[in-house]
């Protein structure tokens, strides 16, 4: 089935040419020019175009940001990769190569998706492509565009403040951009509306179930729950998350019994709502040095701080950093255990969203709504299971005054080194609750978002830099 995952005839060469771009970095034109009327002509080319969107997620320029933010938060010990400068001290500059590459590639996902949607929406009929499958493709592509925009917003915009003017660049009419017209940033609220519009359409149109390295209606609903939490619409966030949990079994999703096995299964895990496809030898996802990523000082502190006792460690932390195979000294992080690269075998992935997040989302939303009993109930469903190892008495003993903090800390120990959720949680807690994040979690709280890359500012004169840079 490997050919179904590689783009056929629509080569995405941006990764080879991005550094040569002279125009605005947020108006990247897809090189395969899907707006030409002869590109998507039948089912095969339509599926190839969709595969191109998924392929655009499989780049280290997106994945490496996790290493960079990991250095900022202390989630892992700092690794020697391009762009790491300044992150540990929260003093990143606008010419940082990791920031620039990440910004480029996320906007490429947006542009690639927008170009495909333009073609599908402007062509009356496509040979051999059924209306039902055409609708599903639109849903999958819109879900991808929404995720890319959400990542741009929370990294480069003040996502935690709906009244802020510092959102992302949105193209007029959601069209792809093919010139250097200067475009200002949308507000945060306008950015969220665009993201939610895509997610609502994806919930209505994407496949009801899908492989775990593709997007389904449930992927879109889970992402919408995350967005609603960010927007402080806590009741809706909790409702959506409960719907995801309730609908998961019928759609082929479930929590894994073993925390360690979850990551051995990689992108094929039943818990993944969306993870990157990676298969040896030709479709690897080389996004960093994750198997050699050791527990950072903050992750280690938190594992000790939340453990039931000094003699009983957090089982999730132990499964990833303690239960190591002495015969494989190259693997010191069991979330990324696959190093052999044997042909035809699955490889380590990037876990963008998995089912477990919904339980923490409900717990936080209910706690913020003033419903500690409901918050504890959700927390028990994810902590009082064998893979986490906590008791109901442990959860009941958490004081109401510390409930939000303990949700944050346990969520950290669930998702460390996956998709930087811990950093965006710290940002929200600091901005919303004046929760102190320095120096316990980070060395400095000076910046809560990253700078807009200098080259993007040079190519788009209407673009404003973030405050403090």
UniProtKB/TrEMBL annotation:
This is Starch-binding protein. The keyword Hydrolase does not apply. The keyword ATP-binding does not apply. It holds the Pfam family SusD_RagB. One of its GO terms (cellular component) is cell outer membrane. It is found in: Cell outer membrane. It comes from Tannerella sp. oral taxon BU063 isolate Cell 1/3. Residues 89-229 form the SusD-like N-terminal domain.
